[in-house]
Structures are given as C-alpha cells and as structure tokens.
Records
---
Amino acid sequence: MGLNSSNPLQKEIRCVICNIDIKNINEIFQLSHNLGVICQNCVKIFSSEDIEIMTYLFFIYGGYFGKFDQRTFSLPEAIKSLTRKDFNPKKQILIENLNERLVHKALLHGISPIDLVKTLESFLNR
Ligand SMILES: [Zn+2]
C-alpha cells in the first residue's frame, strides 16, 4: 500500500456551506464560532455576515447551499409551506423562526440572503 492510499484516520472534511470535500488541508477556513470549517471558495464569494447566517442556519436546520436546483425555488410556495406548518391560532407564530426558515429554504436552493432580499423586493413590486 502506498502512502496515498486511503487512511481510515483521515476523515472527510466538508465545507459547512457548500458541502464540498476539502482535500487540501491548507484550504480550510476555520470559523470563529466553531460551527465547522468552510472552503476558500465560500470565503471568497460570501460576505462574513452571510457566512455567519448560513453556518448558523445549516447547523440548526441541516442541509447546505445549493442542495436543490435554484429553478425549483418558488417564493410564494416557500412562504405557503412555512405558514401552513406554523399556523396555529392558539399559539403565537414565531415570526423570527419563520424568517429563519424562509432564508434556510432559499439557501438550500442556492439563493444567498442578499439574493433572497432582491427576490422579495421584486415580488412585492410586481
Ligand atoms: Zn464551500
């Protein structure tokens, strides 16, 4: 067996945002809040604020950025499915939680928080 054969001690290290398997240890970016590591590419494309939101939401709700096809995302459908699940007149709807889950749903479809805001704006201005 050569040195490059798979080592059972070497665990797969995945980016908590895009789920890519980070092969090069030098390309790992450790997050300050300890919710995992992210790849250099995600460091490059996302703002630190977006990274914070995304790592938090993926930690809480699971999944990763772009898990589903972006074209299958529908804002009205996403809102409908979330409100259906949460609608209970006897219980106060947790707006903050709804908001979080809407952002999370968008992220799963590869839509960043800033793109979601743009989508919301154009939806409301139609
Ligand atoms: Zn990444």
---
Amino acid sequence: MSSDFAATKAVKARKLHVCDECFRAISPGETYHRTAGSWEGDFFTNIACAHCHVFRKHINKADPDYFESYYGGAGEWVANGYWSALDLPGMTWTQRLGLYRMSQHFRDRWRDRVGHLRPIPNHPTSLEAVPTGAASVIQGGK
Ligand SMILES: [Zn+2]
C-alpha cells in the first residue's frame, strides 16, 4: 500500500499489540511505530514493531518498487525472496547479504534460537532511496 499521505510516530506500548508486518507480539513497554494515513481516499493505520520499522527502510532503500507496499508489504517482499532479485541495480553484496539476514530474522519474528528478541537492526546509512547505480558509487566511497 502506498499512500496519499502518511504520518508515523513512535509509541510506547501500554498493552499487547501485534506487528502488522511480521505478526509478532509487541509487549507492553516496547516502542512500536504507528502510521496513520490515506490511500486513494481511504484511511488506514499500520503498526510496525521497532525491528520491522527499520527493516522497511532497508527494503525501501534497495527496492525502487517497494514504496507501493511500504505499509504492510514486508512479509510479501520476504516471501518472494526479493533480496536476491537481480533488478536492484544499486545493491552492493554487503547490502544484499544484510537484507538476506534481516529477511531470515523477519521470518523468525526477530527472535533467536532460544527465543530472545534480537537487537533492532541499524538504520540504513542514508534514508534516501537511491537504488540506482549512483548508490553503489556512494557506498563504495566509504
Ligand atoms: Zn514486526
């Protein structure tokens, strides 16, 4: 779902919520991200856990088509294995590996083998979506 407008704010959970991306339980005390917006005139809301909030930014940076399903589309993106898509022209192997790992963690609802919640992924180095050849040049310069 893309949107005509959307505003996201960080909220501290006071009761149990469910993430609309990975469907994990968000426990009271955790920070989650609530988006309210409009898509073709229809009001919508979306709740994302802290992990998925960052994961979506990584996907959006890598995949020029992802903005169409930014809210609620992470599961489909992972299920389709798009981290391996060859039409992500600006992707470095490091980015691709990072997206692959995050996709695995997303599938596990961000929990490790013993059930502990994993650390929140780091934000992308730039929040700008520059998934073109220029991005690899910029990345390569670091
Ligand atoms: Zn989530």
